[in-house]
Amino acid sequence: MTTPKLIALDMDGTMLDNDSRLTRRTKEALRAAQESGIRVVAATGRMYPSAMIHIRDIGIESTSIFYNGALIRDPISGETVYEKTLGRELTREILDFFRKRGWYIQIYADDKLVVKDRADERCTYYENICGLRAVELGEDFWECGLDSAKLLGISFDQPEFERMCAAVRGEFGERIYQATSWGAFVEMVHPTVNKAKALERVSEHYGIAREEVMAIGDGVNDIEMISWAGTGVAMGNAKEIVKASADIIAPPNTEDGAAQIVEQAVAALRRNSRQG
Fold this sequence. Notes:
Blueprint: E1 6-9, H1 11-15, H2 24-35, E2 39-42, H3 48-58, E3 64-66, E4 71-73, E5 80-83, H4 88-101, E6 104-109, E7 112-115, H5 121-130, E8 135-136, E9 150-154, H6 158-172, E10 177-181, E11 185-189, H7 195-205, E12 213-217, H8 223-228, E13 231-234, H9 240-243, E14 248-249, H10 257-275
Parallel strand pairs: 1-2, 1-12, 7-8, 12-13, 13-14
Antiparallel strand pairs: 3-4, 4-5, 6-7, 6-9, 9-11, 10-11
């Protein structure tokens, strides 16, 4: 394994445990990496304000990736490096598609979580994960005219979830980038957006070669990033399709698997420094 100069980590299922918490070991490992000169980059599907809760807790200083790559922003200055939304027309079209089928969907626009009904159990579930309160629009939700960075469909019913995934793929195809997570979420962003493309932009921003980048993730939306990086790491809790894209399989997030990999990278860097 090449000692990385940059480590990009997904959050849910990777950096965080199954209760969406950041453990002390993971926090200390990421802080130690930064102190050793390794850039630590968050690469998440989460919205910016939700991800920033953990970014601030860790003290991540490097430009990071949000909304599956639709937004790249410096967490210290707040400067936006890159942004690509779905556009108002496509946002409206997808909302209409979900409305006609009676499916739940939520909007991410202007760093706000926008929903029709906050009392819906799917909204409550997501609020508990992200740590933020949604903006409720009622029936105006469907005609709000917002330009969304990301849209998220949710179904806890497995057959319905599978129908939702297939229907979205069949209707919109290459007009969107579609990924799944949590076994209940259908994530939709602009077709030119994914974590790998965003990570490439961040690496170029810092003048770091692909071979010197490590990417760690567990979700289907992490596959491109894991495949692109010089060292791709899949979590032990990842699906087999994700593991197949990786060079290394880490222990699961319940065992601080990401922290273990980061600790190994820091130890290798320190050994090389002593030998040099």
